[in-house]
Design a protein that fits this description.
The protein is mainly beta and about 900 residues long. About 5% of the residues lie in helices and about 40% in strands. The protein has 6 helices and 62 strands. A hairpin with a 2-residue loop joins strand 13 and strand 14. Helix 1 (about 10-25) runs antiparallel to helix 2. The longest helix has 21 residues, at about 60-80. The N and C termini lie far apart (about 110 Å).
Length: about 900
């Protein structure tokens, strides 16, 4: 690891890799032996994230941004390296293309036999400015390790001590590209580091071991390492999901650890074939020693095997300062298991950490500058003094970007959002007395100063963290330890409230997401719900205002245009509801993105910017519902209620609105949704629109529903909440509907009903001779009467009264007949008077559906060629059913929509 730089690649990377390896080792999916051991041999040394600083009330610094983004970048490129082959031999057919990891690293450069890790060059994997992550440069360096010489030294020193064969070349032929030591031994371990460098020069690294899978010959691995010491002073503060302690303080010796795994036996231990130690790149390895006797202890717990032994973290053999008197470096360490020359490494197996700081006097043990344990947001140098503290580390002082090593004192806001404190105030000028032992003693006095400007008012509790790096004062960083006083409040800051967002308040929300915008020149005011923290109960309307532009760096801010709240309702310490009227206050030139200011009664206020968008009036839909029927193909007269804004109708000014639909799959299908329907009607304030949809000739699928204002041609299509990032678009999902015949008053009163029948008949004389056909005659259903067809023989079998008929539907109107499809029409007479001759039963099959959107018509037509025989002796009333051949759905049975009329 390069000293003086920032150590990045957030801890989550190590956690993810641990989970991957655990999954590979313990899963039931069936891994091969090689896969299991490769997973065990991959060592991820994810060096900790850097620089997490709060800026003002909420904003983290650029360094914290670098941490988040660089960790993603590191993971991406570390995985790219890990996916390269460890070794592929070159051949005469392919002597130039990089095939394996060392080929990629060296490429066609002059062969490099110097294996030193300390001065290995960084090869650029991705230059700054290139995607992805153009703000970062990504480099790679590698060294080989002879595992047999890594004893009593760090992995870094082991790489420095490994000497490559003189005839080895990355791009050579015939096996000379195979990595070998100067003794001719093939090397099977690569130590490599991916480094991300920011534009500011800070860098974050990820160092790993990569093992050759071709040399794996046994199922040897460590699953987990835990601390089982009986002495609680030797136990650390970190625990795994099983409740096992996985850490220990680095100022303790004779710590009992237990390593669970596979591939070792009692006889292996007795034969001296097993070695177990903890390793880290930057520090000397820690040998796991026998508890008694000459070997480690072998044991079994259920189906699990384990090795047990002692580690000494305070043996003065540590390589890294400034961790005290050569104590071991805090953070993740890794288990190195050797069984009969087979090596397995469990990454991030154990955590070495600082002793936990202790606060003996608790709440009574500190004072501030004036003794009242509270301060004001305007204080720039509030000094706090803490007495009777134990183990508060202070090794290397410094300021950002080199903040040093040791303790960090914080005031933590007692209110949390999503489990994270809404504000953290970090101390400066932390001093420890006495300081001779760097804090490794009891009875310490700590003083620190705080700058409260820009921080949120409220109650704060005290947290002291011993940090590996003061740039990462996080309680989640392995190696860091802390105490936190939970029984506060211990300190009260007279400061401003926190502001999170402001959006239009609705008792019943009309949209799934809050709306951070409104419109000027409205006849109604807007009530904005303001969310945040630490609102006091004395906030007045004059303490709340929206502003556009101006100077927000002063308190109170001064805008080029300001709108003061008309009223305020204080719901609780986290919620306000303030009413604003934009009609008289905001003119055409004053539309835009407004900031919001809220001031507590103590005089301290805060600004949220941006907070609310005031826009020019334009129709926008928030929700809609169907009053009748539904969004079905070839339906019309579909009653729709649309809730939104700016549905303005002014007949004198010539302003009106239309409801439109546009097919998502084919935007050229952009239609007037109310074609052939009555005009849409809007409420007086323009927030509710009612209309009837015409879905005749619409394709199945999504149609965008929007409102267009005439004559301005303004629409709501594609409007976006600039603050929330939500696009407000409404879609009608047109589906197949059940076929129906129209009835009186549907879709509008005064229209004819559905059935038009053309029929004719002929009679039989006394001699049984059939006469001529009558003329065709058409009957239309409507005006409260049924349609009819010629046929009925009241005397049944009397020859000179016998008649027969023919009929067809000259027109049949309805809705839900599938577009570009066909329907079947089935009819059956229901006369059951004796004698029961066969009744009329007929089906017209595959009749083509016709659409007339302009006149809101869906219908089928027939001619004489489609006539059906209707006699003799049919019944009176007829049942009819319609089947949609596209879906197979049928209508209800329509009874008495037409009948057979007596004749003769």
């Amino acid at each position: 690891m390069i000293e003086g730089g920032s150590r990045g690649a957030k801890e989550e990377m190590a956690v993810r890799m641990v989970k991957r390896i655990r999954s590979a080792l313990s899963g039931e999916g069936g891994f091969s032996l090689a896969e299991v051991l490769v997973a065990g041999l991959i060592l991820v040394l994810a060096v900790f994230p850097m620089v997490g600083m709060f800026d003002g009330a909420f904003l983290v610094s650029k360094a914290a941004y670098d941490i988040n983004i660089s960790s993603e970048c590191l993971q991406l490129y570390a995985e790219q390296v890990r996916n390269m082959p460890f070794y592929v031999p070159h051949t005469e057919d392919n002597i130039t293309t990089p095939l394996d990891l060392d080929d990629f690293y060296w490429g066609a450069r002059t062969p490099e036999n110097n294996n030193s890790w300390s001065d290995a060059p960084d090869v650029v994997m991705k230059p700054s400015g290139a995607e992805p992550y153009p703000e970062f440069e990504v480099t790679l360096k590698i060294s080989y390790i002879d595992e047999e010489i890594v004893s009593g030294m760090s992995l870094e020193d082991g790489a420095n001590a490994t000497v490559m064969a003189n005839d080895w070349e990355p791009m050579a032929l015939y096996g000379y590209d195979r990595p070998k030591s100067n003794s001719g031994k093939p090397l099977t371990l690569i130590l490599y580091e991916v480094k991300v460098t920011t534009e500011s020069g800070r860098f974050y690294t990820n160092t790993q071991l990569y093992a050759s899978p071709t040399d794996v010959v046994a199922n040897v691995y460590i699953d987990r390492v835990i601390n089982v010491s009986a002495d609680t002073a030797k136990l650390g503060t970190r625990y795994n999901s099983y409740g096992d302690c996985i850490s220990a303080p680095h100022d303790e010796n004779n710590i009992t650890i237990r390593a669970y795994g596979e591939g070792f036996t009692q006889s292996d231990l007795d034969g001296g074939l097993v070695d177990l130690k903890m390793v880290r790149v930057e520090d000397t390895d820690i040998q796991v020693l026998p508890v008694s006797g000459v070997t480690l202890t072998y044991g079994e717990e259920g189906s699990e095997k384990y090795l047990e032994g002692l580690i000494d973290l305070a043996d003065d053999n540590g390589d890294e300062e400034p961790w005290g008197p050569d104590y071991r470096m805090p953070g993740h360490w890794h288990a190195w298991l050797v069984v009969n020359h087979i090596i397995s490494v469990k990454n991030n197996a154990f955590i070495v950490e600082y002793p936990v700081p202790v606060y003996d006097e608790l709440n009574s043990g500190f004072t501030d500058s004036d003794g009242d344990k509270q301060g004001e947001e305007s204080s720039t140098n509030e000094e706090l003094t803490f007495t009777d503290l134990d183990y508060v580390m202070s090794f290397v002082t410094g300021e950002y970007p080199n903040p040093g090593v040791g303790a960090v004192l914080q005031l933590i806001h007692t209110v949390e959002e999503n489990g994270i404190p809404i504000d953290v105030i970090e101390a400066a000028d932390l001093a420890i007395n006495p300081s001779a032992s760097d804090g490794y003693q009891t009875g310490l006095t700590v003083t620190a100063s705080f700058d409260f400007t820009g921080h949120i008012g409220g109650n704060y509790k005290i947290r002291m963290i011993n940090c590996m790096d003061r740039a990462t004062p996080s309680i989640d960083v392995p190696g860091n330890t802390y105490f936190e006083l939970d029984a506060g409040p211990y300190y009260y800051l007279e400061g401003p409230p926190a502001l999170n967002q402001a959006y239009v308040y609705e008792a019943t929300p009309l949209t799934a997401s809050p709306r951070h915008f409104g419109y000027d020149d409205r006849s109604y005011p807007y009530t904005l719900e303001i969310k945040g923290f630490n609102f006091d109960n004395l906030i007045a309307p004059s303490d709340i205002k929206l502003g556009l532009g101006g100077d927000t760096g002063v308190d109170p801010p001064v805008g080029d245009n300001e709108v003061e709240a008309l009223a305020v309702d204080i719901i609780d310490t986290e919620t306000l509801r303030a009413t604003f009227d934009f009609a008289p206050s905001v003119e055409e030139t004053e539309r835009g993105m407004y900031w919001l200011y809220v001031r507590n009664s103590n005089g301290f206020g805060n600004v949220l910017q941006p907070a609310f968008d005031v826009r020019a009036p334009a129709p926008i839909i928030y929700s809609y519902s169907y009053d009748t029927l539904g969004p079905w193909q070839n339906y019309y007269g579909v009653g729709l209620s649309v809730v939104g804004e700016c549905f303005d109708v002014d007949s004198l000014a010539g302003t009106y609105v239309d409801v439109m639909i546009k097919e998502v799959a084919d935007p050229l299908n952009d239609w007037l949704a109310t074609e052939a329907m009555s005009d849409p009607a809007a409420s007086a304030d323009g927030t509710l629109l009612t209309c009837e949809l015409n879905l005749v000739d619409c394709d199945i699928g999504d149609w965008e529903l929007y409102v267009m204002s005439q004559p301005a041609l303004l629409t709501d299509s594609g409007y976006t909440d600039a603050i929330g990032g939500v696009t407000y678009q409404s879609f009608v999902d047109v589906e197949y509907g059940t076929p129906v015949l129209l009835t009186q008053g549907v879709p509008a009163s005064g229209e004819p009903w559905s059935v038009r029948i053309t029929s004719r008949y002929r009679g039989c004389d006394d001699a049984g001779v059939w006469g001529d056909w009558s003329a065709w005659q058409t009957s239309t259903e409507g005006s409260g009467s049924m349609a009819w067809a010629w046929e009925n023989d009241p005397n049944h079998d009397t020859i000179n009264y016998k008649t027969e008929g023919e009929m067809y539907f000259v027109e049949l109107r309805g809705m839900g007949f599938n577009k570009d499809g066909t329907i079947d029409i089935s009819c059956i007479a229901k006369n059951d008077l004796p004698p029961k001759f066969p009744l009329f039963k007929a089906t017209w099959s595959s009749i083509t559906v016709q659409c007339d959107r302009a006149n809101a018509l869906v219908f089928v037509v027939m001619d004489e060629t489609m006539k059906k025989f209707s006699g003799p002796d049919e019944g009176g009333y007829v049942d009819m059913e319609i089947k949609n051949n596209t879906t197979g759905d049928s209508s209800v049975k329509y009874i008495n929509r037409f009948y057979f009329r007596s004749e003769g």
